[in-house]
Amino acid sequence: MFKLIVPIILIITSGLIGFFEMAPLYKEVKVAKSEEQSINDALQKTKDIGDIAERLRSKVENISASDFSKLEVIIPENIDEIRFLNMLNSIAQRQNLALSDLNITSNGRGEDGSMTTVLENFNTINIGFSVFAPYETFKFFLNDLEQSLALIDVDSIILSVPKYDADTNVTDSYTYSIKLSTYWIE
Question: Are residues 80 and 155 both part of a single domain?
Answer without folding.
Answer: yes
